[in-house]
Write a structure and sequence with these properties.
The structure is a single chain. Helices cover 27% and strands 31% of the residues. A 5-stranded mixed beta sheet has the order 2-11-10-3-9. The protein has a 5-stranded antiparallel beta sheet with strand order 14-13-12-15-16, with no helix packed on it. The chain has a 4-stranded antiparallel beta sheet with strand order 5-4-7-8. By secondary structure, the chain is α+β, with helices and mostly antiparallel strands. It is built from 10 helices and 16 strands. The chain has 3 domains: 48 residues, no CATH class; 231 residues, D-amino Acid Aminotransferase, Chain A, domain 1 (2-Layer Sandwich), CATH 3.30.470.30; 71 residues, OB fold (Dihydrolipoamide Acetyltransferase, E2P) (Beta Barrel).
Amino acid sequence: MTELENKIKKLADSYYNGKEQISDKEYDSLIEQLRIENPSSKLLDTICGSDSHIEGFKKGRHWLITGTLLKLKNEDELKEWYSKHSGRYYVEQKCDGAGIELQYVNGKLNIAITRGDGFVGDCVTANAKKICGVKTNLKFNFTGSIRGEIVLKYGNFDKYFSDMKNCRNAAAGIMKHLDGKDCEKLNFIAYELKDKAEVLDITEKSKMDFLKKEGFEIPAYEDVNSLEEILKFRNFYVEERKKRNLDGFDIDGIVLKTYECDREDLSNRTPKYSQVAIKFDLTEAVSTIESIEWTLPGRYLSPVAHIIPVELCGTTVSKASLSNYRLMADMGVKIGAKCLVVKAGEIIPKIIKIL
């Protein structure tokens, strides 16, 4: 367990420093392995979905726990889950950016806190006030927290930050500039709230109606009553994501939320049934392995395949990870083999199958 926990910690640190070593799917599988083998591990309450602390910012405590949602990876998993939890839901886009909580007291923005470990994060209030869509004063005398995602829209990414790896990492880095530089080029998308008076957070509709009235930008959402409606929403936004409109932003799936809010379940680090994420399928391409490059970044040899260049998620891919020797042997990797390449999390190209 100690070895597995240490591995997850190192991977989480590299991820949030823009140096991803494995795909989102592989990382999620490690978390799931730890959850199954050691459900009492304290790491599940501290590292899952956390971001790193930046020196120079004070720390602040969240009012609304920022947890990790259960992730359904494909249609079969969704069908199995829905057979046990059918009912009325709200389904919305799952924004892919940097999480933040805005805390209001009597309608005035008091403090803005990054995701951190879900309980404590960095206070970036001055930076948040520069971000498009963050309201410093509300019309309603609201005391509570509004949670959302800081995103870098494609137009600003292409215009100002095209040399950076991707929109998500760029947004997370800009948000933590000590001098607040470029924060005005970011946008805030609101999707959750906790009302201290317990009036506005009775249903998902009441939450979204409040956020809309206050002028917050919110993700696209729908009221659904069947598995067919959920799949229709998901498939529509899978196609929309491919269009990459300049005013758009990264989406890595959809989120299902029970129509009636269950405050007790939402207080769990990972909600048991009231919210669940459905990840988008990985974008795939077929290529041919031309050679294998070996490096030794740590204790183990790391294989990377040089492939015939293919277009994947808007970029030309000529190299793809093979993870490790054991996986290569299991797949039957050979020079000249046709292979299935995915861009996991739209970041790291990876070979997942020999065709």
